[in-house]
Amino acid sequence: MPAAYPLEARAKGYGAMLGFGRAGAIAAPLITAWAVARTDAQTLYNITNIGLIISLMCAVALVVVMRSRTTADGRPQGSRVAGSVGAAAVS
């Protein structure tokens, strides 16, 4: 990975990740308190389920797309064969 992304880019990405995480940690209790005060438990349950169903559909779609990709010789993308570049040497 270090060859693909320079140190400065990785540091900025890590800083952005921490910032978004902290903003979410601050906003989540505020949004939850607002939602609980405005709606009933069944509505909150249904809203949560909608998010979970969308996440499940995205995960399944990702698995389907990744399994359908193949290399030029017909092997699944990312599979390794002994002796290929990047495979661990056996002594």
UniProtKB/TrEMBL annotation:
UniProt cross-references to InterPro entries, sorted A to Z: MFS_trans_sf
Region (Disordered): 71-91
Keywords noted in UniProt: Membrane, Transmembrane, Transmembrane helix
Stretches with biased composition (Low complexity): 78-91
Residues passing through the membrane, by range: 20-37, 43-65
Annotated protein name in UniProt: MFS transporter
Lineage: Bacteria, Bacillati, Actinomycetota, Actinomycetes, Mycobacteriales
